Every structure is written in C-alpha cells, then in structure tokens.
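Example: FBD domain-containing protein.
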Amino acid sequence: ESLQLWDILTARRLHIRSLTLRSIGFRARSACTQELVIEDAPCLERFVSLYSPDISFETIRVIGAPKLKILGLFSPCVSTLQIATLVIKGVSPVSLANSICTVKVLALYSSGSQLNAVLNILRCFPRLEKLYFTLKKHPKMDMKNVRLCDPLDPIECLAIHLKKLVFENYKGRDQDADFAKFFILNAKVLKEIKISSPKGNDIQWVDDQHRLLQVEDRASRDAEPEFRSEACP
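Written out as structure tokens, the predicted fold is:
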C-alpha cells in the first residue's frame, strides 16, 4: 500500500502500475531519473516529495489515480506535471479548463514573484481544504494589483473550501508578507493559519508581522495567524 522512491540513480524513466498502492513518496536529489509516470493506481490517495525539491524529476505524469487527495511538495524544478488531463508547465497550467476535484491537500514550493501563476494553479484544484507553502527567496515584486480577488472571477477554493493555510520558511521579508497577506485577505472560510519562522518566538517581531499582514482585515474572522518558531537553516 505504500512505496518510497529514494534517490534512484539507474533508471531514466520509472513507470508505476499498482492496484493496491495508496501512498507514493519520492526523493530525487539527482537529475538522473528524468520521468516518473503513475500509469494506473486506482487506490492512490497520497503522492508527495520527501525532500527539498531543488532537484526533482523533469516530468511527472499521474495518469490513472482517480482517488488522489494529497499532492506536493512541487516546484518549478518539475518542468512538466500532469494530473489526469491537467498539465502544468513549471508553475503555469497549460489550460484553466481542466480541474481536479479530488485533491484536498496541496503543497507548493513557491515565491511571491509567482503569485499569479500560483493562483492559476489553485483554479485547477477547486476543492482544496488545506494549502501548504514553502517560501523561497525571490526578487521584489509589486503586489498592488493582486491584493484582492476579482469578485466576478472568484477562485473557488479560496471562496468556499479552504480551511487550513500553512507557510513554512517565512522570513518576514516584505515579499513574504505580501504573498501571505493575499491569502489572509481573500480566503473566506479559513479556520487555521500557521506561519513557521526562525523569529516565531519574538513577540515584537510577531506584532510587526500582524500589522504587515493586515490581520485585522482578514477575510475569515475564525482564523488568526499563529506563529511558531523553526530552526534557522
């Protein structure tokens, strides 16, 4: 029922078929294995990366996994990610017409400079209930035009389904705050917001972050950001 793929160096392509697998985890720190294909896994519910995704498979295709619920941690290092008929190149869906309604939990390795691309990905997973971000360093960007969702073009998971939001590796940079603030101001039914940071125990720093994140203006009154400390890398 469970399979872990751990630094496989001798196969350029892996194809998996299984009638019983429920969970697949992979760790790829070498580009030797270029393609991973889940051809037929009717019971598969969980497909996740087990390691920081600085290097990963170039192409991942999950063709036959109709019960997939948990997906991630993925990054632009995966040049092509295909889930059923949904195809994502880097962090951009090829088409917004295809959506995957079974996925409830998604983890992404992303930056503020990719916000619009991330929002397009979220449109492809309309029933998300839990969303995890591992933030990476990124160039400064202007967030003025993406502070609020367009009410005429809502993102379904932010408006109706998303209950839990987690940010890892939050350093408190302006770009981090702007990225997180977008979701705090737009996710309407959140119950939990967790933010992990090396400064999570610094009361004054946390108070400053609350102001930067405009916590008082949050879309869901049921969720106030909870900061927690993480060790510096």
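The CA atoms of residues 30 and 55 lie 6 Å apart.
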